[in-house]
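Methods: example folding runs. The two proteins below were folded one after another, and each record is reproduced exactly as written to the output file, sequence line first and structure-token line second.
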Amino acid sequence: MESEQPRTVEQIRGLVSWIGAGRKLTQTGKVTLADARALVTLLETGDTIDPAIGDRTFKTKSSQELHHLNLLVEWAKAARLLRVVGGRLVPVKKNARVLEDPERILDALFEALPRIGEAVLPSGWLGSIFAEEYPAGLRVLLTSLYAADDLVPEQELQAAVWDKVSGFYVLDDLPEDRLRLLRQSNDRDVDRVLATLLGLGSVQRVGGAVALTSRGRQAMARLRGEARPGDPVYQLRIELADVEQPAVWRRVQVPAGFRLDRLHLVIQAAMGWQNCHLHAFDVKGVNYGHPSSELDFVDETAAALDALVKEGEFLDYTYDFGDSWEHRILVERQVAAGAGHHYPLCVDGAGACPPEDCGGAPGYDDLKQTLSGPSHPEREDLLRWLGLETAADFDPIRFDLHRTNQRLRALDW
């Protein structure tokens, strides 16, 4: 039951308590085998020291070979509950109070997940691309779970991670059997990470499907920097300029302290853009954009929304400097974040997002006329370009609030 403390939390508390004032490490910085023998039993890690296979006994040479114990030690260090000082493993005194609250331990361990890749996915005879690109793979795994309203088949999660991490490499020339082994090792490591999350109480498994628990959702919200109950939230009305019949607009709520680079991603997801062009903000005559841009923008990653605008004020956002999609953004009001909500949150809206690269507002007007009026000589070419079967498949009025919020939850910060 979720009211019980996750096994990993109890093991970490037991580990730090057992360390006491400190324990001497080996020259390689690992727990000694003598201490490992005691900890494997005390913490019930499930590791086997000196495993016997058939008639042979394989001598354990280092505690690093004990996967679960090594993971707990490295995880406690990454969560700043333990540290190494002068060749000794000692508790971090300033974080001692964290150990008194299981929920704070959970938060600390979840926040440390991106930093424990080598302990979760140790190198072996067949390493995976996931192990090499662990932070990126972990993000897409957690984000896929967070965006889902229900259980997600594990095969879908494996595919999402593979698509993400394999994209960093050129694999087209690999033999089919080698590619198959790489995919299998990747799927194996996805299962290892899910097992780690299961021990943390962050996910639940039902058959071959997985979902975040309420604890996992809360931890993900904090990891993403979402507003907590009572935090200030700005309600924004984002309207696409010069687009009518129908107008295209969204009403979204975002943490008041969001940086402009995050607001950019919110606008993309809420409106339905594909984020494949340049963008810029204009706030009271000052232009903000990507810090590496050659357009001399002020760094949007260092600009917080609530430091620039207040309730009742406007800012402008331009997407795609060729088509020039202008968005007028009004800070309608400031509200307090409510319990049980995830921010950013879309609460209302209307109109479908125009197709990318259709020529801006004038081109979109022409597109709508071509598809809505009598048969036009360019209609078939336009339908092929849009990937549609018939003109009836194009609906400029369409707006799906649920799907919009799924996109917002799927944002990868």
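Second run, written to the same file directly after the first:
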Amino acid sequence: MDFTYDEQQTAFRKALRTFVDKEIIPVANEWEKTGRYPTEIVEHMKAMGLFGITTPEEYGGLDLDKVSFTLVYEELARGWMGVAGILGSHNLSCWMIGKHGTEEQKKTLLPKLASGEWRTGVGLTEPGAGTDLQGIKTTAKRDGDHYVVNGAKTWITNARHANVLPVLVKTDTTTTPAHKGMSLLLIDTSTDGFEVQRDMGKLGYKGTESCEITFTDVRVPVDAVLGGVEGRGLQQALSGLEIGRLNIAGRSVGIAQAAYDAALEYAKQRTAFGQPIAEFQAIQLKIADIATQLQAARLMTYWAASQADSGKRVDMEAGMAKYFASEAAITASLEAMRIHGGYGYSTEFVVERLYRDAPLMAIGEGTNDIMRTVIAKSLVAGTGVIG
């Protein structure tokens, strides 16, 4: 067993950490409060090639190993989770196009997406369908060499900045089970009838937009079906979510790390009764708990990522990492707030933002209750083995 980064991962992590420390952390609190979009940070991420981390090299991407992939989200979320979200949906979409797209789709889209010249996201969730994707209502009816798309999607990250958006639709509403009639369409967002209706108000996860979008008689060419074949959309989306859960696990580790860093620094500086509160056993117990859960979450995340690098399906491993790490992030942010006392509730300190950002990690890419069922099903079926 080797629990260390290799030489390339070490250098990559150092570059990411320097970027986050210099360009993100100094502005994150202020920009988050004012609702300012992090344009300058996005431009820097483009220059670093971070919009192409899941894109094959032949199409201009970095095609990172999955441990390095999780490192990106860990470090970005340590600085500002919303910035990590900008990359999350984009690179998930790129991964799906690279994995399932036709050669023409890859050649046309991936070079522009990998450079950041074009942006993308993923259109799955609807006002009436989140976890149960087979319950979506958005339809795509064939009309000659086009589909006519009608429906709505919600909580769509990057909706206002996307040039192309993979959208899960029902190309056949009569099939049983429903997933056999579901497809992903690569929709040009400049097409008539595609509209971003509003930005959703959120507790946290600021910095990137989460929008409600509608499709009104949107005409999409038939060759925009991801992979060129109808009826594979749900499987394609779920395969992407498997990798997306590594992204969420990495972000969760980043939030927990930021909470730990803030709590430890504050406990050393804050004095009470003539000594730093870090000398009090009650505070030490909280710091020990945060650190232990943080390190366990990190190791589980890297384990799941390394299993994905081996080429195997990682439904169970990614589910475990996402479940454990997101709960660790929630606990770490709350305990860090308690260590800060009244200052933890102040917008002048970072822990207040971490406390608002962390809960989304237990919801995104499948709720943690769903993760537990995914884990259990893998164990019962024997596809996942522990011990």
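Comment on the second run: The longest strand covers residues 146-157.
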